[in-house]
Amino acid sequence: MTARSIAAEPFDLDLDLEKTALVVIDMQRDFLQPGGFGELLGNDVSLLRGAIEPTRAVLDAARAAGMLVIHTREGHRTDLADCPPAKLTRGGKTFIGTDGPMGRILVRGEEGHDIIPELYPIPGEPVIDKPGKGAFYATDLEAILRGRDIRTLLVCGVTLEVCVHTTVREANDRGFECVVLEDCVGSYFPEFLRVGLDMIKAQGAIFGWVSDSKRAVDLLN
Ligand code: TIU
């Protein structure tokens, strides 16, 4: 038992470091680099890049502390059998599964689907391949967390209002306490970033806490 407290809003959160995991959500080329799914949807992907360095600092500290680190990737089987028809036409066009400069868009095994080099997983770190926005839907994430008796999640990733929110809401309903690190998440919409963080911590931490990379590194050192 390594009882600690992380400085956070709306109030500091007590946690056990041995029962805490770092979850890095969908830091994939398809969302962060030109030519991927994010850009095809009409977004300026450079808006997400500010989250990379702070996430790297937390990742380094978590690895040094021996904390469980989990990565997720959004994407689909090569035959798209796990992609609902309604998702195929997001943006009013069919992008998922079509050819792009980094391979087939949001398809497992393609270059664009993989995690950016700056945050690449190291051996032993579970990588959760998920067909949905949430990391619990149709994955073994919950089994992995329960198997390690994890209670608290430090959360980084993109985009805040889509896959990060969905995952944190799913985690909260399963009884996990989530701390979203505000400089380690990104959005294509600056106003969504601000309001999305406010939504999490409003009403006395209605579905989570908000902290940042510096306070997470302080926790881990
Ligand atoms: N489009 C958008 O903001 N996000 C996604 O489609 N997926 C994730 O957030 N990972």
From TrEMBL:
The keyword Hydrolase applies. Keywords: Hydrolase. GO terms for molecular function: hydrolase activity. Pfam families: Isochorismatase. Residues 20-210 form the Isochorismatase-like domain. PANTHER family: FAMILY HYDROLASE, PUTATIVE (AFU_ORTHOLOGUE AFUA_2G08700)-RELATED, PEROXYUREIDOACRYLATE/UREIDOACRYLATE AMIDOHYDROLASE-RELATED. This is Cysteine hydrolase. It comes from Bailinhaonella thermotolerans.
